[in-house]
Amino acid sequence: MEKSEKTVNYRLLLMIGCCGALAIFSSTISKSPILPIFAAQLGASGAQIGIIASMSTIPGILISFLAGYLADKYGYKRILVGSLLVFASAPFLYLLVYNPLQLGAVRFYHGFATAAFGPVAMAAVAAFSGKNTGQNLSIYSSATMVGRALAPSVGGAAYDVGGHSYVYVIAAVAGTAALVLALWFFLRPGRAEDAPAAGKGEVEKPAFVQRLVSLLKYKPLLFVGLLSACVYFAYGAFEMIFPLYARHLGMSPVMIGVLLSAQLVAVIVFKPFFGRASDKLGRLPMIITGLFVCAFSFFTLAFVQSVLVLGAVIVVYGLGFALTTAAANALAADVASAGALGASLGLMSTIMDVGQTLGPPSIGAISDAHSFPAGIVVLGGILFLAGCACSVWHLRQKLGKR
């Protein structure tokens, strides 16, 4: 790769990473830890809170594949800018909410931002990464995790100072900053060099339905999608249930935010290293290890009430989550169909969002019927079974090569 091309690529990675950090900060502070607390104040039950939390992931089911397909066909700039417009505008709508139904509607609109931005940004990064796909995707992901890690602590503190309105004003500022940065990058002189198409394949691209059908028949991609669905089923449910469980234990919003941020510190620090390691050591062994670490963490969390121990276990969960997602994102790019990187990652994101959509209401209902610890144990069981299934897949692959 020429030196000038490397410079362009790293500049692009830096821009997408910074936009991702700001956008995900804006999105995360809108929900963690404030969303379940805000929804409860509006009179929502545990199951209703789960449904409200899931409303933002439904757009991912609807449009992630379409966004990736359009990025393959026309390039990613328009999709990224369009999604950032939603990131910038959605936080203002929370200030107008007065009942659970309105809150669910705003969450649904907000979900279109991450539904389009996530898979297209990953496709843009993977398109120029070559042999460093795992490393570069993990660097991008860690950049977004900086925003995701800061958001709960900032959101909890802002809520204590001025209530939910302070939280959503901060979210609006961050979302607008991400949009301004992207527009500056794409509109400045020399922008054409810095913006290669995400779908930089050499094969002719078939029609939308044909592409979708062909990818749905591709078992390796479906396997990665189902695996990600399990991981994000647990992640989305945990984001919803933990603030309620922590409040039940008597913790303040600030402390809840600090604990939720703690789990992501490990992700930020270690995910790039895990991604690079997966480039050299293989994806599946790291995914399997990560799944079992996450399962162990949830089993432990269900029986712990000490704040210090909770913090330590949440950090361990962050390490497991980093192990799993660093390798899974790279594996998705590895098995992407030729000339359809955006569509492949979009389909994987769609399947993943099905899991993340089902997680909060399912675990919310279990918690209503039994207890918060019962819901957390179920999450551990799901990830344990996913780890077992992934181990069987890996064993079959190894035996098939002999």
Provide structural commentary:
The protein is mainly alpha-helical and about 400 residues long. The protein is built from 15 helices and no strands.
Layout of SSEs?
Layout: H1 3-29, H2 34-41, H3 46-54, H4 58-74, H5 77-94, H6 100-127, H7 133-162, H8 164-187, H9 208-216, H10 219-248, H11 253-281, H12 283-301, H13 307-334, H14 341-369, H15 372-401
Order of helices and strands: HHHHHHHHHHHHHHH
Distance between the termini: 35 Å
Radius of gyration: 20 Å
Strand content range: under 5%
Number of helices: 15
List the uncertain runs.
Answer: 1-5, 192-205
Q: How does the helix and strand content classify structurally?
A: mainly alpha
Report the helical percentage: over 70%
How many strand units? 0
The gross shape turns out to be globular
Mean pLDDT: 79
Main sheet specs: none
Which features would summarize this protein structure in a list?
disordered N terminus; 15 helices; 402 residues; single chain; 0% strand; 83% helix; mainly alpha
Explain briefly what this protein structure is.
The protein is mostly helical. The protein has helices spanning 3-29, 34-41, 46-54, 58-74, 77-94, 100-127, 133-162, 164-187, 208-216, 219-248, 253-281, 283-301, 307-334, 341-369, 372-401. The longest helix has 30 residues, at 133-162.
